[in-house]
Amino acid sequence: VPNRFSYDERHVAALGAIRSLRAHQVPLDTVREVLPALLAASADGLTEAAWDSLVADGLVSGVDPAAERLLDTAREAFASHGYDGVSVGEICDAAAIAKGTFYRYFDSKDAIFVAAARSTVEAVGEALDRRGGTLSEKEALGALQSLLAPLAPLLPQAAPRELREEPRSAGIVASVAQGLAARLRPRLVSQGAIPAARKVVETVILGLVRPALGLR
Fold first, then answer.
1. Could you tell me which residues come within 8 angstroms of residue 65 by beta carbon, excluding any fewer than 6 positions away?
2. Helices (H), 9-47
3. pTM here?
């Protein structure tokens, strides 16, 4: 079906586990590194409790404030000024981090752009968590639109990269949609929370991205 994203309960379970790791201050890059191996341990994915145990046992640990600051700064900069309007030096200056230090974490401007686009899930998800409570579908549409709108320009910037089949950029938009649906699902009062979350996310993303791509 056109304009639909394909994901299931396994994705939801995995993204719930990622939330658990992030709650323990595990950096996104570390999460991405360990996720395939950890998911391979179970055909059904890992529960949040299992991930909590792995973190508590020290199998995954550590957080680097400099890397987090670079990523947060880059996400806001690329969303506000576009890929071509931002330099590595400007990101470093805004994050108060030496340019030489930047390359300890990211090998290029392209690398931090991709990481910044993917980190939209965490930025919006954490804002949803701070709101707390439950939401109707109508309330969720409004909440997600207001939270995602400032960062939405990252997605149309990522889409052409996917069309050019750049390996590093594969699946950015779909992974953001999947992640946002997983973060939104626990907040919905609807019993059909998974389909409802997908519908809300797809509606908001398409509504924000279409104008940027010149589509009606």
1. none
2. 9-23, 28-40
3. 0.67
| Residues 6+ away with beta carbon under 8 Å from 167 | none
**Averaged pLDDT, 129-143:** 89
State the Cα–Cα distance between residues 181 and 164, nearest whole angstrom: 26
Q: Minimal CA–CA distance to 145: which of 158, 132, 159, 127?
A: 127
CA-to-CA distance for 78 and 157, rounded, in angstroms?
9
Residue type, 114: V
Instruction: Give ∠ CA 72-56-175 in degrees, rounded to 5.
Output: 40
Q: 93 phi and psi, to 5 degrees?
A: -60, -45
Measured distance CA(153)–CA(204) in Å, rounded:
13
Neighbours of 8 (CB within 10 A): 9
3-state SS assignment for residue 116 = helix
